[in-house]
Amino acid sequence: xxxSEPQTKSNGSAxxxxxxxxxxxxxxxxxxxxxxxxxxxxxxxxxxxxxQRCSQILRDARSRIEILAKELRSEELVWExxxxxxxxxxxxxxxxxxx
Length: 99
Prior knowledge:
By secondary structure, this protein is mainly α.
């Protein structure tokens, strides 16, 4: 799994889509029932491997999300009130202050 890990981290979405497509193709072949028992077993094995890779990519993504969420919760957020003043009012205030 060491070889697939960097690909997963650098391009997880593409890797996931590729593995999901493989899994869907395996399911379609298995559902076609044109396979011998041995071919069906080989397809099943291939599908299990694709499923495991998809699951690992999703676990990695979930871990990254959890880390980001934890970092956001740990940052001190400063809430400042928002006040809206129309542009015309700002000009008068700025002009009044300058006088």
